[in-house]
Amino acid sequence: MAIQWRVESEGSVVVSQNRVEPLSCHIEDDGRERIEGSLPTLTLSPGYYKRAEYLLWLEKCKNTGLADGDFTLAESEGLMAVAEARAQFERNHPPCGVCSALQDSPFSTSCHKCGTEFMRRSN
Ligand SMILES: [Zn+2]
After folding, report:
1. According to the model, what pLDDT value does residue 26 have?
2. For residue 108, how far is its CA from the centre of ligand 1 (angstroms)?
3. Domain that holds residue 84
4. How many domains does the chain divide into?
5. 26 Cβ neighbours under 8 A, 6+ residues apart
6. Residue ranges with CB less than 5 Å from ion ligand 1
7. Of 20, 28, 43, 78, which has the fewest Cβ atoms less than 10 A away?
C-alpha cells in the first residue's frame, strides 16, 4: 500500500492510497510493471503525507466556513504552508486564457489542450 499524490488539471491536489491496485487488477503483469515504474518515488516519510492529507482536508473545512479562530497555531501554520505551495503551483502552471487548462510551464508557447499560441512579452 502506498500513498500517492497527483495534481488534477484544475490544480487541486489529491492524496490517495492504493492508487495502483484498482488500475492494475485489469491489466496484465507486463503492464502493471510499466505503470508502477512510471509512478514517482516517494521521497518523504509516510507521516509527512498523512499530515499533508490532514491539512488539505482542513483547508476544505476552512473554505466551507470554519473561522480562523477554530484552528490551533500548528494548524494555522500548516494552512499557510498549503496556501503558499498552492500559490507557487499556480505561478508555475498558469491557465490558458481560452480554455483555462493549466500549462506545464509558465514559459509554454502554446496550450497543450486547445493549441492556442501564447504571445511572448517583448522588453
Ligand atoms: Zn487552451
Report:
1. 57
2. 11
3. 3-92
4. 2
5. none
6. 96, 98-99, 101, 111, 113-114, 116
7. 43
